[in-house]
Design a protein that fits this description.
Its cofactor is Mg(2+). This protein is an alpha/beta fold and 305 residues long. The protein is built from ten helices and 14 strands. Strands 6-5-1-9-10-11-12-13-14 form a nine-stranded mixed sheet, sandwiched between helices. Strands 2, 3, 4, 7 and 8 form a five-stranded mixed sheet that branches. The longest helix has 15 residues.
Length: 305
Amino acid sequence: MEDAQEKRSNSPSLTSRLPKTGETIHGHKFFIGFGGKGANQCVQAARLGAKTSMVCKVGKDSFGSDYIENLKQNDVSTEFTYQTQDAATGTASIIVNNEGQNIIIIVAGANLLLNTEDLKKAATTINKAKVMICQLEITPETSLEALTMAHSNGVKTLFNPAPAIADLDPRFYTLSDVFCCNETEAEILTGLAVGSPADAGKAALVLMERGCHVVIVTLGAEGCVMLSQTEPVPKHIPTEKVKPVDTTGAGDSFVGALAFYLAYYPHLSLEEMLKRSNFIAAVSVQAAGTQSSYPYKKDLPLDLF
């Protein structure tokens, strides 16, 4: 598995509720942890047993050095983890309320400096991967180039269009073997309001028409909706109900788990992969933090493997 993405330091604050515009409120806990969509997804896949590698860029600062060590501790290859003096390591500010809901602001930093030359250095690893994940926390041009490289070499591509942009390059749809977005991203991409599984199905049909092979719209506590060229009728895959502590990074847990199953359990039906990925993401929301909440294979039911 390969992840052409980024790494970032997360700074979550826990509060009783999310603040209104211009309002200052008291929180009851603050901590700094490891995050970033691509890094989260990579770590979750690695904790399930996948051999993973990150193609990414961090600053030559304490956050960057700590992050490289964190990846190593999670058995993620850092051969193509580049450090630069030209920008700081990306960061995110997160506020989480008592219901586990969150708001997030990211500052991409060094992520935006990942470029063509960096991808060329990692070409052999990318082209030999079983699955490659890309997102939009690096420049769209770099993600598109990574997807093109992988796709042309027969590598299964999993694209998570986050943070979403309305005018996404049409090639992202055709180069994505699996196009996986949440309800908010689906709404931005299609202009359709997504507030239910039925709405998600309608948005998925629009995305499918743009050339995707498989479309998955995640719906948080409602699970996800799947659609594919071979199964062109939207299908809702529910998830078990749990009491969330912190939903931050749950979508990344889902994507990392899905990538793991695509790479190591290709004989499973897509529906079964999604059921298992839903379960793993539900486990993650029952603990605080992003990567700190991600389960290891040894802590999960044997029938998931």
